[in-house]
Amino acid sequence: MREKIKRKWRRAILLAVVAGAVSCAAAAVIHAGESEPKTIRIGYAQSDEYSSYAQQLLVLAEELEEEGSIREGFSKKYEGVDYDSSFQAGDTVKLWKDICENNVEGAAYQFVEEAFSDMDLMPEEKYSEMVNRDDVDLTLVMGTAPGTYFRENEKKNPYMVLLAADPIASEIVKSETERFDNISYALVDTTSYQRQLEAGYRMLGFKKLGIVYEDSQEAYEYTAVDAIRSAGEELGFEVLEEHVDEPDSEQDENRYYKELKEAYRKLADRGMDTLYITVASIDYPRKLQELLDDCIIPKKIPTLAQDDVSPVVNGAMFGVSLVDYGEQADFLVRQLDSYAKAGVPFEELDMVCECTPKIYINYETAKRIGFEISFENLQLVDTIYR
At a CB cut-off of 8 Å and minimum separation 6, what does 368 contact? Predict the structure, then answer.
């Protein structure tokens, strides 16, 4: 749906996890050298329900369990949980409530149950309730849409934006080292799409890469079209583009999926040899296989997923992760500790976190289109879905 997708990172998301707001008063006390730093009260905001948001939040909570802010034993309940392959509607809210119920009294960080916001479930006139709150000191923000909203409207508390597709292009931050003010922060990785496309190019060897996205500035940013075109120039492949408007309601979905199939057929007719499934409103478990079965798989065209694991689980042939949740969680906790415990000014925290990519293959799809994976490339694959 139009409003949903405009708020996506879209593994894109791209790319939130976490938005932070630490009150200026609290910061002043901490920076003054208080021996017992004030507990940082943490809120949460997202643009919609995505598996990547839930998975990043879970891994962050597990890191904070080790740090001492989450009750010991919390992670045992979630042992083996992988939201990227098992996510269901409502999982993020349940996880947030569970994290809040496992706060450790007097610890460095406390999660505020009432400070959970989902822009997709709120009327626009209620968005202001997410920002400038008195009950949080820092907000963890997931995704581009809430990240840009906080950048424009949060005037009081620090916030940390995760899983935004391109926080620089969307003007959440100025650059890898510069902010617009002293309370903004975003995890930045300017080469993630480049690494994804390089890995895809090495494995698939495409010459004509097809993409479909909405012809709007928002979609242009969260699908990282600039990065795709730049990779094409550098690696030597042509980018074939078609546009489809995102659905603006559930009633509009039939039109959306019909036009998406038509766009895929046009790309196939233009000689596309690999489809790059960009971040969009596609319901992967319910609709992706149907879309691919229409003309992509019959024409034996390989597929590369931009949105990480879920598309590969549901029929895309190849995927390369844009984030490593464990690496990002460890990095974030170190930045939080630098701020809350060591007194590093918020505006001086490091924002650059380049993660090691992971490679996924859907073996059944590869078999259906007759794509043979060399032994050399097979050694690079982290997970094979059958």
Answer: 297
Structure token pair of residue 89:
């509607």
Residue 114 in tokens: 């009432």
In three-state form (DSSP H/G/I as H, E/B as E, the rest C), the secondary structure along the chain is CHHHHHCCCCCCCCCCCECCCCCHHHHHHHHCCCCCCCCEEEEEEECCCCHHHHHHHHHHHHHHHHHCCECCCHHHHCCCCCHHHHCCCCHHHHHHHHHHHCECCCCCEEEEEEEEEEHHHCCHHHHHHHCCCCCCCEEEEECHHHHHHHHHHCCCCCEEEECCCCCCCCCCCCCCCCCCCCCCCECECCCHHHHHHHHHHHHHCCCEEEEEECCCHHHHHHCCHHHHHHHHHHHCCEEEEEECCCCCCHHHHHHHHHHHHHHHHHHHHCCCCEEEECCCCCCHHHHHHHHHHHHHCCCCCCEEECCCHHHHHCCCCEEECCCCHHHHHHHHHHHHHHHHCCCCCHHHCCCECCCCCCEEEEHHHHHHCCCCCCHHHHCCCCEEEC
Residue 194 burial (CB < 10 Å; 0-12/13-18/19+)? middle
What does the pLDDT look like over 60-111, one tens digit per residue?
A: 999 999 999 999 999 999 999 988 878 888 999 999 999 999 999 999 999 9
| pLDDT 10s digits, 219-251 | 888 888 988 999 999 999 999 999 999 998 889
| pLDDT under 70: residue ranges of the chain | 1-37
Structure tokens at 176: 């890898």
Residue 16: its pLDDT value, please? Answer: 35
Distances (CA, A) of 380 to 199, 207, 235, 350, 367: 10, 22, 20, 30, 18
Report the distance separating Cα 36 and Cα 214, nearest Å: 51
**Core vs surface per residue 114-131: b (16+ CB within 10 A) or e:** ebbbbbeeeeeeebeebb
Residue keyed to tokens 């190849």:
318
> What is the structure's pLDDT at 250?
84
In whole angstroms, give the CA distance from residue 45 to residue 43: 7
* Total-model pTM: 0.74
Q: Which amino acid is at 48?
A: D
The pLDDT value recorded for residue 36 is: 54
Instruction: Supply the pLDDT for residue 91.
Output: 95
Q: Would you state the pLDDT for residue 126?
A: 95
Predicted confidence at residue 191, as pLDDT, reads: 82
